[in-house]
Design brief:
By secondary structure, the chain is of the alpha+beta class. Helix content is 29%, strand content 29%. It has one domain: Gcn5-related N-acetyltransferase (GNAT) (Aminopeptidase), CATH 3.40.630.30. It has 5 helices and 8 strands; from the N terminus they run βααββαβαβαβββ. The strands form 2 sheets. A 6-stranded mixed beta sheet has the order 1-2-3-4-5-8, sandwiched between helices. A hairpin with a 2-residue loop joins strand 2 and strand 3. The longest helix is centred in the middle third of the chain and has 15 residues. It is globular, with a radius of gyration of 16 Å.
Amino acid sequence: MKFEAAPKIQNFVFEIVPTNQRLDELVAQGFDFGIHGIRAREKLDKGALMFCIFVEKELACIHWAAATQEAMNVLIKVSYKVDFSSNEVCLGWSETNPKYRRLLLSRYNYSEEGKFLVRMGKTIGRTLVEKRNLASLKGLPKAGGRVYGEGRYLKILWWKSWKEKPVVSEASQPQSV
């Protein structure tokens, strides 16, 4: 990640949750994951990583990442191109509790997530951002990210289609973590 972001709030806790054991330890300490804690177990079992920020033990911001195809398969619905053998990582979905928006929690989370992934040897992070998600699109360049392509997802009953095409510009290089 290309930035250091200090949240506009005091008394927050950043936690990396790589396993269900760590999830259980945090729950025992009173950290409230809400519905995310219930849904996390399968993802963590498959190797996904959860990056969380808590404010007074309430989940304020959550990000997910996958360093393997198996983890990516349980993390996201659309299987976009990520070359795990070339030290790429899938940056899955993220969410900020509406109560804590505009406090730079997501930027801080990305910064800490990037540092952790670099220590793992990951050099490129790839993610999907919907065109209508203006907050994420605005924050992407601030995080050092670039749009490298455009995708089209179509689902009709049980049939699914995903197609990617590169964006031709200097910003077409993948995001570095």
